[in-house]
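Contributing new records

If you add data, match the layout below exactly. Sequence lines come first and carry their own label; structure lines follow with theirs. Keep one chain per record. Anything else will be rejected by the validation script.
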Amino acid sequence: MDLLKQLLDFVLHLEHHLGDLINFCGPWTYVVLFAIIFAETGLVVMPFLPGDSLLFALGALAASQKLDLFWLLALLSIAAILGDTVNYWIGAKLGPRIFRGENVRFLNKKHLDYTHEFFEKYGGKTIILARFMPIVRTFAPFVAGMGRMTYRRFMIYNVVGGLVWIFLFLICGYKFAELPFVKENFPLVILGIIAVSLIPPVIEFIREFRKTLAAKQV
């Protein structure tokens, strides 16, 4: 319960926590942010890290001159693309073990199955679409590597998806942060971004739940 409260406090006051990080780390803030984006996209054990909301908040801080937008765009784009690339190769190495039915301790089987179903539906475009979906964002490149997607094809989707994701949310945060409504209701805006990003997984969950009910009734 305490952990949940701390997480909620972090999300609702994201701009203040980031401000504290900037004051504490100074120029090293960019290194920390690079590591966060890299870990969320590159390590399957880190699907809980903030993504869309973090990028929007960073764009807002850039608008207030606390961070440099150019360095954010450049460094975080590299982190996002590099993270997916590393995740792809981890999936390629662990894939044979998973196909043999071996348990991999740090993997959540449900998340893996859900991402695999997403691939079945959307194909390679999943690498781009997943950038905007929590959890799937972290597991998609892993599943691509596990399923032996052609590396060249993967990298095209990886670069396009990474650039669109980083640029979209950073620039939106930069452009809209100074609007009176956003300034006065920043925590609500952040929650709204999180809520919108959760819509696709919720829809898929409802569809699967209905399928399960229908199968039981047959």
